[in-house]
């Protein structure tokens, strides 16, 4: 836990962020906060001057002119801070809104640069959860506390000056009265932070369980499987345990306050005794006595507030640090500085040479899920990858897309190691449809169009969109390309799982990548449409490489090459004919599936 991350560094980063967002408002706020901190003492001095003037007028040694002067100053000392306070609060709110947007956008920018391995890691997920839980508000709160500290600081300096002038002992009494406050606040805020930090995993579980009541697909299961009470219990237990810890910390805080109040009273009495003695001895006037008392109590409150805000600043800094850690998280997979720029115009030669892979894990070494894979995919070949669940098919294509790098061995693209190729160049040459593909809540046109978002619209675009929808069979249910696929919105609709998948396949046809990778693209699609899709792939993807992962052996018969995986190894490879002649695993599984179809026909 990097809880003791340098508070100073985080505060500087937070102010630097504010500076980047709007330096004029930042400087204005700092100035106005400093002004607010010191102006209050003008009220005390002008009020004590009025009291002394009244006494002097009664004694006949002063005129009402001085009294009016002091009254005007007193009036202004009340009026000006009120106006300034309103200005501060206006600009502060404006600044919070401006920075809130900037922070969210910056976070998105940083997140989208990360690789999947980093995103999957539990440390990153905790960081994300922490940042989400405390929101961008933690960075902004930190600034608020810095501003409050500036106000308090100005107040302390002013009051020290006044108290020092009246009686130096007053400064010492007030300082001693306030000193323990810091340690109490610090201890308490550390404890709350620790509780929150240690319960991050619990909060992620709570968030997940709550999602079962909020997300449609999950909510249906909750109702049908009667999971409500079971999930509710899990949520309640975790929340109750978290609350108990926070309440215990709150209790300790309240007790500390009681002790602190007694301590403060002790020094207040000492200060009153000292000032009364001075007044009786005639060394200060009545107005001076009032000024001393007001300044003393205000000094204590200010120093108390200052310590409190330092302590809160520390607390806010601990939370804000999560945001900055998030910003600092660097992707593990990225282009090398001297990466080769390649503008792919034709399907490339792909070679796997002795590739082995294990998933990265922070807790320790995981088993190899791919072992010594070697194979070649020639430009424009249609490849099928088959194998039982967990044999490593999806992992293999993740390596090909460079979502991960191999643990051992190399992948060559046109003879260049994939790690040496500029990542974006390679990414723009490939198109991938994963088995758990995302559903876009966009219009039909956009849902297909995102397959090639960087493309500038041209006259053929609409035609190509419609063609892609035709190849995937999506055109059969599309009534309008402007239809919004989002049931929760007015006029929005939802689609069946298979229809969603047809749209996703259309997206891939529209992308028309040099290397198209399809991971079980027809799992939810009916047999007739499946046949149509595979025919379109063969006919319209000529010259392009297509890699297909599937469990349906009937769909791979026409592939140029079939790779059969088992426990992360290629156990057979060749065309359908070659593998059938081999009479190995492929032949056995193919025959089994074919037999089942025929039996079903009988
Ligand atoms: N992100 C991950 N972190 C750790 N292990 C993983 C991860 N993804 C997959 N695995 C493991 O890697 C192995 C291969 O998984 P993979 O998804 O590649 O199999 P598959 O052949 O595509 O399976 P399926 O046919 O079920 O889609 C499995 O044992 C799985 O548990």
UniProtKB/TrEMBL annotation:
It comes from the Bacteria. Keywords: ATP-binding, Cell membrane, Membrane, Nucleotide-binding, Transmembrane, Transmembrane helix, Transport. Signal peptide: none annotated. Its main location: membrane. Residues 350-592 form the ABC transporter domain. GO terms for molecular function: ABC-type transporter activity; ATP binding; ATP hydrolysis activity; ATPase-coupled lipid transmembrane transporter activity. GO terms for cellular component: plasma membrane. It is found in: Cell membrane. InterPro entries: AAA+_ATPase, ABC1_TM_dom, ABC1_TM_sf, ABC_transporter-like_ATP-bd, P-loop_NTPase, Type_1_exporter. It is a multi-pass membrane protein. Residues 142-315 form the ABC transmembrane type-1 domain. The chain crosses the membrane at residues 25-47, 67-88, 145-163, 169-185, 255-274. Gene3D superfamilies: ABC transporter type 1, transmembrane domain, P-loop containing nucleotide triphosphate hydrolases. This is ATP-binding cassette, subfamily B. It comes from Ohtaekwangia koreensis. The lineage of its organism: Bacteria, Pseudomonadati, Bacteroidota, Cytophagia, Cytophagales.
